[in-house]
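Q: I'm building a small set of examples for a reading group on sequence design. Run inverse folding on the following structure and report the sequence directly after it, with nothing in between.
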């Protein structure tokens, strides 16, 4: 049985969603971050970075959410990777873009708005990162024109990896109304039973 370490409200959420999409049995284990369980000697054996998510599947132990999702797809539902080299390339393109380009500014704003107490909040960090988002979101919006999913005409890991970042926007006050293709794409994705199961786990 696969064990996925981390709460559905953390970066582990995208892996839980991928496991639901793959239809593979799994169990989740919460890691008590408040009590620094993620830095315990026992957990560091699973993820030496001391972060969630981590996945254990028999003798396979992995960290990094994107890598975990590629493993889940490769091992349990290959069509989530795309069906041609071009599709698999695009799949990685969007996943790497989501984490290396889009996630940084979004998480910087999230940290300031959600975690920082009022007296420590740095509005310059918020403003500077907010300025980066229109160009990034426009790239995604244009690429989604006339398409239901990011790669080819089927749902792939790229949709999970990218949507899990974009869907933070409403939580940080970034309105997606100006990006109608992104809104349509997120709407199609949110109808998926696997997504709904994952969302139910977040409550
Ligand atoms: N690049 C990592 C980031 C993981 C990450 O930053 N996880 C956060 C929770 S969302 C964490 O465990 N933070 C604890 C820490 O940094 O000490 C991934 O995508 O898996």
């Amino acid at each position: 049985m696969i064990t996925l370490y981390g709460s559905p409200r953390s970066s582990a959420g995208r892996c839980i969603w991928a496991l639901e999409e793959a239809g593979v049995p799994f169990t989740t284990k919460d890691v008590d971050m408040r009590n620094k369980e993620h830095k315990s000697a026992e957990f560091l054996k699973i993820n030496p970075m001391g972060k969630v998510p981590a996945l254990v599947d028999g003798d396979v132990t992995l960290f990094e959410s994107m890598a975990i999702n590629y493993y889940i797809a490769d091992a349990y539902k290959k069509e989530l990777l795309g069906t041609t080299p071009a599709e698999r390339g695009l799949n990685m393109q969007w996943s790497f873009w989501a984490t290396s380009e889009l996630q940084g500014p979004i998480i910087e704003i999230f940290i300031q708005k959600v975690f920082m107490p009022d007296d420590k909040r740095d509005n310059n960090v918020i403003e500077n990162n907010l300025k980066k988002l229109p160009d990034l979101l426009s790239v995604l919006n244009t690429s989604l024109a006339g398409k239901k999913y990011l790669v080819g005409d089927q749902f792939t890991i790229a949709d999970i990896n990218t949507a899990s970042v974009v869907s933070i926007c409403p939580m940080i006050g970034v309105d997606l109304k100006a990006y109608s293709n992104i809104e349509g794409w997120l709407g199609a994705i949110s109808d998926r039973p696997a997504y709904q199961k994952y969302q139910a786990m977040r409550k």
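Strands lie at 2-5, 26-29, 54-57, 60-63.
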